[in-house]
Amino acid sequence: MSTAAGVVRPTLQPAADVARSALLFGCLMAVGGCSGEATPGAVGSERPGQLTVWTLTGPDLELGEFEGGGDQTFDLVAGVALLGEDRIAVVDQGSADVRVYDGTGSLVETFGGEGDGPGEFRAPADIRVLGGDSIQVLDAWDQRVTLLTPDFGYVREFAAVSPLAGRYLLEGTVAEAERHAALAVLAGRPFPVARTGFRLATLSADGRVWIRERLATEAAPALWFVLGPDGTPIRAVEVPHRFRPMYLRDDLVIGRWRGEYDVHYVRWYRLESAGRTTAAPDWLTGPASDTPAPPMPDSVRRGLQSIVRNAATMQEVYYSNQRSYSTRVDSLMTAGDRELPEGLGMDVLHATARGWSMILTSAGHAGMCALRYGRDGPQALRSGAVICTN
Length: 390
Prior knowledge:
With 390 residues, the chain is an alpha+beta fold. Helix content is 17%, strand content 37%. α4 packs across α5. The longest helix is centred in the last third of the chain and has 25 residues.
């Protein structure tokens, strides 16, 4: 049922149901199923080389208001986390705070606020619950991580680590041990650097690495692959256009829905089998190469950095006329008589009136260069800074 403000207010899934869902998935992963009724298209039942496709069903909960200025009016939803089983924490970068809602959608607590003091933020961008229920919040303004107690008491601050690793952009604020574990999984399935491009990866709340294979469009959903601890793909997940997953688990996904006029909402979806399969890409299923990819030479890195700066100039010219940024940076560069070299990969992650971001890669070399400009996009990248890595 929707209220006048456009907010669906069901009770969150009971903890017992969540536990049963997690147990069922664990059984499916371990032995191909538990006793009882078979699940159509469940993990373990697919044909060789095929993965079960899972889809997002719901939403079971929606937070947000089209207008009104109430406690569910969000300016820029930058992060979401589930606290226990009955509270959702939402990072709103516009108000520089974190709001906590209960299962009915009622606001129960707010912490943070704009400032440079302990527990304050300039541009809060991500939130993650760690082992022992400690909470981390990333501030994209200076890539600073604030560690909080379970009841949001200030503990300490420290610098965030780079999200770039090879041809992967690892999103999210994770602990150092989690990052090493995720990178170890990704290292076992390296991106084929003979061609250009990169992969966006993130770490779920239950420790699984998710890799995005394709972007969503109006005509087709995004496709993500979920990897097991050894890097083996275990299922595929379709994510609809205009939805950005921020909190992932084997049984649910919570994230930001971008509505009409770029209004932000928070949506909670259940994960269910679609009863069909899809082929896993060769680069995920084949053996890892024993030969490391050659690092990016300094001359190539300088060339990519120059291209990024030129692209930023062309984007500002475009924005001055259109009041938004363009997803077709290559066309802007060509129109501006900027020559693009052979073997260049130029991937625009997003482009709206709020900002834009892009990744540049060079065929045959490991590493990449990245830029985020403005308020939206991968928050683990500092706005306005060109970052390159091998």
